[in-house]
């Protein structure tokens, strides 16, 4: 990193349900352009700017084909759509629905994502160094590189984001000494940033303008309301927490497969002339992908659509299943039905966002900006334009609202991630959840009726346990880089280990419904954090005496008191970073990813040789165990009577 904390290279990765995009730039150079990787293995000379999120099922294949290299493989030989199963609820739902192509368990999901992203990492580390000069002897690992990942807004539970952080590191991102892997913006926020900077559009935005960013991708649709606070330099703020729903182009594909399967069920005799997975092949073919994007354009306004079938003889026809000369024929109404089911869900989500927008007193939505794979559909664009026009008769806030598609809808996320890293455009966010620390409070008979009480044997005072200090509340407006803090006091006998465990928790509830302690419903653990005091530097550790009178004797007993500030930073996607301060002095590790193990003899960033330790230690706070990273303090004990 340079003196301003900027790396040599920033790489943005938009890991998508159906496709993955990568772009990079050199943030130290203010004129450095955003460069998109469009040279993918197996992609030929087509300059494909995204690679399919696909990987071979054959784990013993030494080549382990992925992306375009899987194009010629049978659908039964490859994995698709594994990203959506990073949400455990989606995997459970797929099991209930009997989806045959779903992974067996979360361990397999994590392994599939790790394997795929490892191939992405290897390709990135090969391609990017070819495009700039390096000093003699300088390797890719010697450069300061920051990898920035986006996440969907549907990942509301912190454990999903933390699991994803572990996966991307297991895949190779951030493992070199000068490399770092972080979670950046949500997909809707990144699209909004790209729009604001006019990389994604040529919209003439002005100070005070409000626009709604709708990023409809392969597996999710994400919404973000933002307001322009400055055009030059570009700055904006969220005015509503981002929201998302599990709607995307893969749902359109699923509807097509169901339509084809229904035809085949009515005419089983035709199956012998078709490949076993013809429905899946058709839904994932470049021919249907073209129809998805072009459908709805005036030049494509026709009654029948012929889509070429892969693996079917060009002379094969069957009237019953609607195949003519190797092409399956669909009516306009059939294709509309594929989109309309998803469109209704998007509109429902938009209505909920508009209801809240009006309830909070905002007056006008200037623009609605569409991005993403499904967002690039001409049919979706036209229907949403019609929806906002219809809504303008009953909602004053959308009277005059313009619906516009991004100039490059499938790449705005990676571009937005890079531009945000370079210029910090999103200045205020709205908290999507509440985060707190479990604490003890001095016992009060009035306030703590029927609470669990602990008598501290060292100072002989009563405390109520399992109370919660909420640092961030859902709906709070959080300025960029805002850090929240709680002061904690701990005590230990002189002969006891000087270490304490702090419990970090979260809740989906807003301020008025937050539980006060761990016995009330609506609170869940995120992690346990071990704080260890090993003797040695500032005055956070104090020795106190407790005097007792027994008959004619005065007896005193010494014990340690340690005070420290636990500071919490919450990222856009709910990723948490922690640091510890004592007596105003930063203790090991600043605002750093929780996976780092911090040692005591550094005031700022961990020394390079300390950044990586035993993987088991680094991952000790995994969602399954809720144990923690270790933070070691090194204070000088002082004696106070």
TrEMBL record:
Stated name of the protein: Hsp70 family chaperone
Domain of life: Eukaryota
InterPro entries, alphabetized: ATPase_NBD
Provenance organism: Oidiodendron maius (strain Zn)
Taxonomic placement: Eukaryota, Fungi, Dikarya, Ascomycota, Pezizomycotina
């Amino acid at each position: 990193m340079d003196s301003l904390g900027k790396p040599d290279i920033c790489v943005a990765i938009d890991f998508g349900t159906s496709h993955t995009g990568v772009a990079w730039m050199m943030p130290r150079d203010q004129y450095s352009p955003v460069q998109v990787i469009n040279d993918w293995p197996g992609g030929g000379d087509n300059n494909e700017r995204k690679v399919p999120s696909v990987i071979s099922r054959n784990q013993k294949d030494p080549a382990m084909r992925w992306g375009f290299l899987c194009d010629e493989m049978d659908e039964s030989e490859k994995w698709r759509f594994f990203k959506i199963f990073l949400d455990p609820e989606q995997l459970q739902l797929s099991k209930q629905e009997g989806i045959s192509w779903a992974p067996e368990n979360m361990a397999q999901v994590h392994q599939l994502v790790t394997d795929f992203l490892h191939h992405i990492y290897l390709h990135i580390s090969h391609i990017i160094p070819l495009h700039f000069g390096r000093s003699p002897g300088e390797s890719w690992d010697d450069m300061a590189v920051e990898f920035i990942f986006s996440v969907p807004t549907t990942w509301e539970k912190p454990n999903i984001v933390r699991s994803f952080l572990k996966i991307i590191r297991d895949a190779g991102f951030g493992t070199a000494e000068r490399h770092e892997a972080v979670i950046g913006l949500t997909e809707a926020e990144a699209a909004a940033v790209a729009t604001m900077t006019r990389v994604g559009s040529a919209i003439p935005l002005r100070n005070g303008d409000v626009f709604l960013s709708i990023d409809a991708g392969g597996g999710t649709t994400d919404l973000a309301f933002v307001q322009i606070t400055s055009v030059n330099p570009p700055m904006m703020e969220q005015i509503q927490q981002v929201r998302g729903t599990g709607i995307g182009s893969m749902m359109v594909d699923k509807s097509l497969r169901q339509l084809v399967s229904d035809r085949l069920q009515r005419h089983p005799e035709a199956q012998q002339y078709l490949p076993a997975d013809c429905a899946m092949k058709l839904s994932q073919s470049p021919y249907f992908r073209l129809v998805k994007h072009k459908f709805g354009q005036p030049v494509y306004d026709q009654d029948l659509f012929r889509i070429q079938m892969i693996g079917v003889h060009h002379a094969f026809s069957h009237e019953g299943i609607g195949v003519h000369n190797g092409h399956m024929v669909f009516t306009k109404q059939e294709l509309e039905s594929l989109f309309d089911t998803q469109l209704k869900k998007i509109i429902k989500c938009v209505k909920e966002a508009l209801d809240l927008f009006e309830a909070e007193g905002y007056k006008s939505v200037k623009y609605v900006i569409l991005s993403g794979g499904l967002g690039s559909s001409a049919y979706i664009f036209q229907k949403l334009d019609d929806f906002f026009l219809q809504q303008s008769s009953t909602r004053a806030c959308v009277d005059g609202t313009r619906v516009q598609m991004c100039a490059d809808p499938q790449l705005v996320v990676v571009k937005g991630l890079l531009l945000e890293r370079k210029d910090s455009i999103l200045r205020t966010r709205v908290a999507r959840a509440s985060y707190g620390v479990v604490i003890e409070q001095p016992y009060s008979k009035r306030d703590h009726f029927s609470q669990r009480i602990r008598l501290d044997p060292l100072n002989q005072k009563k405390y109520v346990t399992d109370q919660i200090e909420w640092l961030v509340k859902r709906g709070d407006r959080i300025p960029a880089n805002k850090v929240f803090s709680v002061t904690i006091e701990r005590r230990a006998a002189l002969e006891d280990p000087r270490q304490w465990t702090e419990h970090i928790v979260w809740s989906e509830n807003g301020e008025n419904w937050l539980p006060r302690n761990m016995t009330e419903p609506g609170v869940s653990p995120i992690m346990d954090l071990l704080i260890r005091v090993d003797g040695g530097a500032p005055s956070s550790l104090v020795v106190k005496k407790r005097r007792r009178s027994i008959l004619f004797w005065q007896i005193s007993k010494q014990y340690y008191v340690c005070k420290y500030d636990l500071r919490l930073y919450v990222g856009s996607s709910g990723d948490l970073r922690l640091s510890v301060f004592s007596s105003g002095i930063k203790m090991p590790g600043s605002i750093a990813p929780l996976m780092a193990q911090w040692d005591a003899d550094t005031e700022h960033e961990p020394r390079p040789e300390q950044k990586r330790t035993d993987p088991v230690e680094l991952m000790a706070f995994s969602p399954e165990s809720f144990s923690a990273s270790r933070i070691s303090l090194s204070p000088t004990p002082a004696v106070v009577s």
